[in-house]
């Protein structure tokens, strides 16, 4: 009898490599949104909830301060206590919302490309850098020019005119001429006043002689 060959066992199927799926962003109305937009939305929501929590805690502190006043009694005290209990519930709710928002923000930040700035933001950042560098270069180049111009003005203001001997002699001669002219003008003025007074006296004498003799001075017959 011939031995029948034994059937070869079929090769086991190769184990397929585990497939990993990238986390999908939640679909929101008006989407789909990019990872960057989802991250910005989560960050904005977290900031808003944080501001609301800070306002609620500040309001609670104010109500608690009013409740500690010694003159608060009766209906006012009861109303403040109810308000304080409502604020406590509000603060606890906002704290839970803030924790959830922080979790969503961290999940959105884990998506590749979520923290990469957009082309518009990159261009705006580059523009700010260029403007800043341009202003700094302008100041660095213009400051020495301003200093040099200011020093030039200071030197020009500090320059004094040097007096030469020839200029001194001319100034002395001008002073003497002015003094002589002033004396001559004063003498001429005195002569004119004297002549005017003489003419006035002579005119008065001539007028007195020209008058007819009065009746008292006529000889009596």
Automatic annotation (TrEMBL):
Residues 1-44 are annotated as: Disordered. The chain crosses the membrane at residues 129-150. Keywords: Membrane, Transmembrane, Transmembrane helix. Residues 1-25 have a biased composition (Low complexity). This is Uncharacterized protein. It comes from Pseudogemmatithrix spongiicola.
